[in-house]
Every structure is written in C-alpha cells, then in structure tokens.
Amino acid sequence: MKLKDVRQQARQRFNNVCRVCRECNGVACAGEFPGMGGIGSGRSFMNNYKALANLRLKMRVIHEVHEPDTSLTLWGKKLTMPILGAAVAGARTNFQGILTEEELTCSFIMGAIQAGTVAMTGDGPDSVQYAAGLKAIRDAGGQGIPISKPRDQSSLIQNLKEAEKAGCFAAGTDVDAAGILPMRAAGHPVGPKSVNELRELVKSVHMPLVLKGIMCVEDALSAAEAGAAGIVVSNHGGRVLDDAPGTAEVLPEIARAVGKDIIVLADGGVRRGVDVLKMLALGAHAVLIGRPLAIGAVGAGAEGVRLTLEHLHNELKVAMIFTGCANLMEIGPGALWGNGTGTPMNSHR
Ligand SMILES: Cc1cc2nc3c(=O)[nH]c(=O)nc-3n(C[C@H](O)[C@H](O)[C@H](O)COP(=O)(O)O)c2cc1C
Fold first, then answer.
1. Is residue 247 in a domain?
2. Higher pLDDT, residue 38 or 261
3. Interval between CA 87 and ligand 1 midpoint (Å)
4. What digits encode the pLDDT tens for the residues 184-197?
5. Residue of 283, 276, 267, 270 whose CA lies nearest to 329
6. pTM
7. Which end of the chain is more exposed for a tag (fewer CB within 10 A), N or C?
8. Domain range enclosing 97
9. 243 torsion bin: left (phi>0), alpha (psi -120 to 50), beta (else)
10. Is 94 in the pocket of ligand 1 (CB under 6 A)?
11. Does residue 39 belong to any structural domain of this protein?
12. Is 112 inside a domain boundary?
C-alpha cells in the first residue's frame, strides 16, 4: 500500500470529520473540538504550523555525509528515528466512532513499533480511553508511553502504578490538560499540579516520568526541580488554550534553560522531515506526531501509521544530507538559516 492510498482511504472514512488537507495547518478544522481541530479560533494549532514554516534551513552540500544516522536511545530504548507517535485519544468523540478506542491505540502502538520507534497513548473522560492505551502497550511488551490526565493525585498515582505493572518503559501526565472541562463534567476533576505534587508522582514509580504540555521556562524548570525525566514542549496541538504561541517559538528558550538535565521532546504541526530537523535544531531530542498518524490509523490501521512514520524518517534523512548533519547530535542552530549561522557544524549542541 502507498501513503497516498492511505490518505485517500482516510479521507473517505473520515467523511469530513477531518478533511485530510494537503497542508494540515488547522485552517479548515478551526474550532472543531471535539474533532480534529484546534480550540476556539484555532490559532494555537495554526501558530504551531506557522512557527515551523517560518524557519529557513541552511543548505550545506559540500561534505561527506552519505548515510546520516538518525538513531537515538530514549530512556534505555533504542529507536531508529527521533520521531514518536503522540498521545491521541477519544475515538468516540474526536473521531465520531469511525474506529474504536482499541483500534486507534493499537494502530499507534503497533505502527510505531513496526517503524522502529514508539508511541504514546492518551486519556479522557471515558475510562475506556486510558485502559485501551495501556492494554495496547501491555500487549506490546511495554513498548509505549501512556499519558494520564492530571487527575486528582491518588487516581493519577494509581494510573502510573498500573503503567509500571504493564511494563511501560516510561509514563507521564499531560499537565496542560489542567483546565479541560469535559473531564470535570464527567466527574474526573483535573487541575494544575504543584512542584511538590509532581515530586510525589516521580517518587511513586520506578520509571521515567514525562510531563507533557510545557510552554514556558518557569514550568520547564519546575519539571526539572520535581525530578521529571522528560518534558514535551507542546500546546496539546492547539486544543487546550486559544492564542498560545507555536511550540517552535518557545522551544529554544526552554531547551536552553533546562540544558542537559532533562530530555526535551516537542510536538505541534510537525508534518515533514524538515520540520523534524527544525525542532531538533531548536533544541528538541525528538518530536511527536499527532494528526498525521491519526490520518494513517484511520486510513489503514497500524500499516498506515507505519507508512507515515517511515515517510517522515526518509524525509529526515534527506534533510540531514542537505544540511550536512551526520547524526542527531550534529543538528543544531547552525542548521537554520540566520539563527546560529557561522556556528561550526560539529559544535551545534
Ligand atoms: C484527536 C486528538 C486527541 C488527542 N488526545 C490527547 C490525549 O488524550 N492526551 C494528550 O496528552 N494529548 C492528546 N492530543 C494532543 C497530541 O498528543 C499532540 O500534542 C498534538 O496532536 C500534536 O500536534 P499535531 O497533531 O499537530 O502533530 C490529542 C490530539 C488530537 C488531535
């Protein structure tokens, strides 16, 4: 099967829930939440896309990089590419039941593994959401990262302990879901977490804890102070707060502030291999992909997810050849035009 057939099939199955646009930039689906769009005006989603599109790459073609090495090790797990599946949940609400929660999460987890990487799974007001994700990861021998909503402390600790029992190699919470109303309406209050509460979460399990939804230096430093193993610079794909900046706008100062203390992942509007390279040049260790993998899953299940990830992987390799980066450590500000220009290629990070 070809990626173009996956997208065509997804367009038909989605029946306008997602238009599978040529440019997945949040314009056609603005305000469609629940659904695939960004919340409110849709600008936070659009800002993600625009922030990446506004960056230019510095072409370098006189070098000896023929086969760039895209591999990395994340919390002891070797991945072929710095590209992971994002947490995407809500088959009934966001996808209007086109597929089941189990089909959605299995497609993400299995498709990512088949591509040599891993995916996250999500959580929501309906208990099937976290459970389906965790089951998919457990069935895959723990190869996945479940992301639980920032529920009350004891429910959240319980979810983390279940993740540990399922053999997950890392788990986390999307701290940016602090104000999500449907969770409260369904009797699962979510809210902001203090540094002390985060420290308690870190200590409650013996696996790396990831905090997803960090958009400012203050929160990044608090995450590090609490002992988190990683953060995801993310505005939840523009689905929680209107008029948030694009993640690529805030990533550089956050990555600079936390230094080497913590793994920095980033997501939002990553659509091509050049976008992956841009996020890494701004300081991310790896990126997450949301909607394009959802399209893959609806189009052809795990195969659609795998094909989408492999396509991005190939594009990243090409982008690395064109910017003269032999491995991920060599991707830094010097790969961007006008931002860190003059930095020698081998001293980006
Ligand atoms: C339909 C949908 C459902 C999502 N569900 C969750 C979730 O349950 N938990 C979570 O942390 N993030 C969730 N997200 C956000 C993604 O994990 C990710 O941050 C975002 O989609 C990245 O942006 P992109 O879609 O532009 O790649 C969801 C996103 C979408 C589009």
1. yes
2. 38
3. 5
4. 888 899 999 999 99
5. 283
6. 0.96
7. N
8. 72-338
9. left
10. yes
11. no
12. yes
